[in-house]
Write a structure and sequence with these properties.
Layout: H1 2-17, H2 27-46, E1 57-60, E2 67-70, H3 86-101, H4 106-114, H5 143-150, H6 155-184
Antiparallel strand pairs: 1-2
Transmembrane segments: 167-184
Keywords: Membrane, Signal, Transmembrane, Transmembrane helix
Protein name: DUF7707 domain-containing protein
Length: 185
Amino acid sequence: MLSMTMFILASAATLVNSQFDPTSVPYATREAWCNSQTSACPILCLQLPGASGTPTSNTCSPATLLYYCLCSNNVTPNASEYSQTIPYYTCTETNNQCVLKCNGDSTCQNNCRVKNPCGAQDPKRVNVTTTTAKAATPTASETPVNTLVNGATGSAPRMASVNMSHVYGLCVFVGGFVAGFATLL
């Protein structure tokens, strides 16, 4: 049964990859894609009920871009629903090649990407927890921050202020790095 499953999956991968010529991508790039695919396989397996993060089989060939990920529960995850996988990379590269063939026609370029979306379109939420939603009305202490960020109040500005904290943190980190480097000179 397992060998039959492997044959079917390899045949399906060949059918999918028959639309994409692996040699159109440099070998080093294909190696990187395969490394990403084999790194993603254990994570994809964790998304399946009853599977551990240790796949039964996890291979990828840079020459052909054929890959195989079989989880401990004998189920193969649908890698096309995720990024950093061979289906995602071949899809985005196919779109890139399509855009190049459009010779600058923006409608054609847009169609290349819109008519061939890559990655999950409606991902399944497996490990979802229920949380209580906070009221959308900001507290008095949140309003000045929101107003400073983008001149508005409410839940959307609060999200902007949270995202800005990452920017400020990065600026402090880079500033500290530059200051430390300057003292070495």
